[in-house]
Design a protein that fits this description.
By secondary structure, this protein is α/β, with parallel strands linked by helices. Helices cover 36% and strands 21% of the residues. It has a 7-stranded parallel β-sheet, sandwiched between helices. The chain has a 6-stranded mixed β-sheet with strand order 1-6-5-4-3-2. The relative contact order is 0.17.
Length: 314
Amino acid sequence: MSSPVHAILSPQQTADALPYLLLAQEIEALLQDASVAVPPRIVQALHGGGSLFVMPAADARVAITKLISFIPGNAQRGLPTIQGDIVVFNVQTGQRIALLDGPTVTARRTAAVSLLAAQKLAPRRNGVLLIVGAGVQGRAHLEAFHAGLGVQEVRVASRNPASAEALVNHAKALGLQARRVMDPNAELVNCSLVVSTTPAQQVVLTSLPRNDAFVAAVGAFTPRMLEWSAEVCQQLARTGTLVVDTRDADHEAGDLLQAGIDVGALPTLADVVGQTAAWQQATRPTDGPVFFKSCGWGGWDLAAARLSLRNHLR
């Protein structure tokens, strides 16, 4: 990267540069890279209930800034809820070397983080997958868990019938067995893999996952958002294993914070990957569900930028 590249990747080019398995591997490598620096993200509230996110990150070679908007009401407008870009710079020269599609990176890196967590933590990786919320993240997690875990059967729950049917059809096109379910809480007993990717404006999940379940709770990424009931979160804290994606979750994990759980005492994905003392000393039952709370982090976007540069420029 001695000379500027100025690669501007379309959404499809961005997706093609970020295969889920390789992206999960890149995220794991980034968590072990001592040169990575990620300051707290800036979240600016917007009139009308939206938010503007500014998320910088850097390693020894590459620096990024992610600039995206999140507008929950856009779902009713037929517009994407997340819009924006990721700008990539050469650390040595300061030159801009790439521009990535922000929504595509957000979808794929979030699903890849969940995939990595499942690879490390899921008690049973070959069971039925329940997806609650059939939007962009639901689709990305379906693809990631199929590619990375070999999932062959999926059940989809969504308040939007058209979205649910579209995701079911996409799963069938990938060769999976798939069907829509009306009550996600009733389905928890049948599924060892659970992904919640709802708009997180209200509690949707009020039943306990089964003891051999892995849950990736993705929808709530601010203190005010939530998908899982406080009672379920409290029970999981007593009988299961709770892991957060990063220490940013200490003040962003709405489900857990609103349940009164001490999020700062929970191990992170970096602790799991690095087998740190925090992970080794964490109190974990041997036969309880695993609840992975994902809130997002600029480091995940940096990992995506590193991988996309290698894949697109190879």
